[in-house]
Each structure stands twice: as C-alpha cells, then as structure tokens.
Specification:
alpha+beta, 15% strand, flat
Length: 67
C-alpha cells in the first residue's frame, strides 16, 4: 500500500490522444508524432511530479462492462 501512496492517476480519453497525435489528420514524420505525444503528456502532467503520475486510458466503460 505504501508503494502506491502519493500516486496521481490521470485519465486519458482515447479521442483526446488521437486528436493530439493526428493534428487534423495530416501525414507526419516519426519526429512530429513523437513531439506531439510529448507535448500532450507534458500538458496533462503540468505541475505534477512525473515519477508519481500514472496515465490511465479511459475506455469509457464502467465496472461490469456497461458504458
């Protein structure tokens, strides 16, 4: 339990991730998509200790499989 104390879970909606990476749907280089991902994560985690952050992909489902 103590190992988990102080962790900050940040929920990430798949649509938000896709929007950040696609930047309007234009083709991009590997470097561009890497930079977009880094920018996205930086914005999500601003003001938080990176070693304490855990990103959680939000599938939109509630326990029991119902959304």
């Amino acid at each position: 339990q103590q190992a988990l104390s102080g962790l900050v879970a940040i929920s990430v909606r798949p649509a938000d991730l896709v929007d950040a990476l696609s930047d309007g749907g234009a083709p991009c280089t590997v470097e561009q998509i890497q930079a977009r991902f880094e920018d996205f994560v930086t914005k999500l985690t601003r003001g938080k200790e990176p070693s304490k952050v855990r990103l959680v992909i939000d599938s939109g489902e509630t326990p029991g499989g119902q959304s």
